[in-house]
Specification:
This protein is an alpha/beta fold. 47% of the residues lie in helices and 16% in strands. The chain is built from 15 helices and ten strands. The strands form three sheets. The protein has a five-stranded mixed beta sheet. Strands 3-10-4 form a three-stranded antiparallel beta sheet, sandwiched between helices. β1, α2 and β2 form a beta-alpha-beta unit. It is globular.
Amino acid sequence: MTFFSKAHLRSLTAGLLIASGLGSVASAQEVVRIGFPGLTEQAMMGHMAALILEKKLGLQVEISGNLGGTGIGQQAIIEGALDIFPDYTGDALSNVLKEAPLTDPAAAYERVASQYKEKYNIVWLAPTKFNNTYALALKADRAEELNINTISDLIPHAGEWTLGSSVEFAGRPIDGYAGMAKAYDLKFGSVKPMDVGLMYTSIDAGEVDVIVAFATDARIGKVGLRVLDDDKFFFPAYNAAITVRGELLEKHPEIGPAINEVIGAIDTETQVRLNARADIDYIPVEVVAEDYLREIGAIE
């Protein structure tokens, strides 16, 4: 879940436009352009969408991986550089619509779906059953020793502790550290922004005391962390969904049901298992995606 400046967004979108040949006669060819960030979960959903379109519906696809997050994907679809982009409701609300986060998954989905369709002619397909929201976590044995089960339970300790988080979370004023600190009247002694993968090795090595994890990250179990209850319901809903350029669905309405049947059925247990294959077993995300689709009979 990454957010980029408008200048960076324009630069990357321009690159996509050039790479895809938009603005030329060649761009009229029947190719569905699918893009996604380098983050495991979104990349996996992007590959699932590509495989469904290619192997089940017989459409030609073109993949652009390792892109930026919500802002990049939304703008690229508007500009015609992409047709499909996997996204999260919480990101769309905060970073594109600039609205207050919503903690109710259904309300968050309904809001982004209606606003994206009305403002940008971008359609949100069915959301996942899992909610990959932010989650504070610390080593389970330490949590047990200090009887820490909720974020509020951290208040007596936080002033002497270090929080490890992604760079994005550390800098976000609404749904990031500043907003959380205000909502819980909670202030850590220090905050260390870092790469998401490094958070887990850092807390395992005792270099930080608490990390801001993602709810479906399989490394939570591997490192032996306890996820704390968000007892003040601060963190917004982050259900994933495939977003699609409206014109593409008008031309190929079969895309919606085919993708919804798969993505709409993925629950937390399933996504954690798939993430584990990629992040812990180091199996390429495209292989994990294809194995899963064959497992459930979505493709042959």
